[in-house]
């Protein structure tokens, strides 16, 4: 995928696992989010009670649903799972497999995203050449226990000043504050609870898409 298409795909990025769906089936929540207009989906089945077999079966169902909508399907952390699921890519953190190693296993044409939470982590990421960056937590979040203190839109702006890599803000983002993240230089927003905890995930996805697109279009 070229850089321009990747920027568009990052517009409304759902990062989700079963633990963040309020007891509803993950496939149901993802299907609703796709109808509402999410543009990328990350399968983040962390600390899951599911067996590996169940995880693979669920991942395949999610991948198929994403394909029906023409939306890239990314796997969190695990390159082995990404390969098994024929995913479009992986997202790795600073403690996970480096992008260059992930690429060796995944082969060409897959997307590799990497997390950045500090200027020092940005230095590491720029050396390791991921395809896109996830910058956060922009705002306070309860969806990731080890997320650290909010970095604000200031870190998004700083990262944008140092690189033209596609980048997405993550952490505490909702329709009300999404425009500020785009204004700071992000190509899109990544969310867990704004969609996973919403009573109507389809409407929540639509509201986020409106907020992001409205700002991208200068509305
Ligand atoms: C888009 C996006 N950005 C950041 C993260 C966080 O990744 P990581 O730091 O590896 O933390 P975990 O998600 O693995 O807990 C992400 N997953 N997606
Ligand atoms: C998965 C994740 N990564 C983060 C980071 O800062 O790298 S914050 C986060 C959780 C985001 O969840 P919510 O949208 O519910 O705040
Ligand atoms: Mg990780």
Automatic annotation (TrEMBL):
Amino-acid positions noted as binding 4-amino-2-methyl-5-(diphosphooxymethyl)pyrimidine in the UniProt annotation, renumbered to this chain: 42-46, 76, 115, 144
UniProt keyword annotation of Cell inner membrane present: no
Record's signal peptide: none
Role of this protein: Condenses 4-methyl-5-(beta-hydroxyethyl)thiazole monophosphate (THZ-P) and 2-methyl-4-amino-5-hydroxymethyl pyrimidine pyrophosphate (HMP-PP) to form thiamine monophosphate (TMP).
Any Pfam family: TMP-TENI
EC code(s) of this entry: 2.5.1.3
Chain sites annotated for binding 2-[(2R,5Z)-2-carboxy-4-methylthiazol-5(2H)-ylidene]ethyl phosphate: 141-143, 172, 192-193
GO biological process: thiamine biosynthetic process; thiamine diphosphate biosynthetic process
Name of the protein described by the UniProt record: Thiamine-phosphate synthase
Domain of life assignment: Bacteria
Family: Belongs to the thiamine-phosphate synthase family.
Pathway: Cofactor biosynthesis; thiamine diphosphate biosynthesis; thiamine phosphate from 4-amino-2-methyl-5-diphosphomethylpyrimidine and 4-methyl-5-(2-phosphoethyl)-thiazole: step 1/1
Domain Thiamine phosphate synthase/TenI residue range list: 12-195
Organism of origin: Calditerricola satsumensis
Swiss-Prot/TrEMBL cofactor(s): Mg(2+)
Catalytic activity, reaction form: 2-(2-carboxy-4-methylthiazol-5-yl)ethyl phosphate + 4-amino-2-methyl-5-(diphosphooxymethyl)pyrimidine + 2 H(+) = thiamine phosphate + CO2 + diphosphate; 4-methyl-5-(2-phosphooxyethyl)-thiazole + 4-amino-2-methyl-5-(diphosphooxymethyl)pyrimidine + H(+) = thiamine phosphate + diphosphate; 2-[(2R,5Z)-2-carboxy-4-methylthiazol-5(2H)-ylidene]ethyl phosphate + 4-amino-2-methyl-5-(diphosphooxymethyl)pyrimidine + 2 H(+) = thiamine phosphate + CO2 + diphosphate
Keyword line: Magnesium, Metal-binding, Thiamine biosynthesis, Transferase
A GO molecular-function annotation: magnesium ion binding
Residues the entry annotates as binding Mg(2+): 77, 96
HAMAP family: TMP_synthase
Bilayer-spanning residue ranges: none
An example Gene Ontology CC term for this record: cytoplasm
Flavoprotein recorded as keyword: no
Cofactor binding, note field: Binds 1 Mg(2+) ion per subunit.
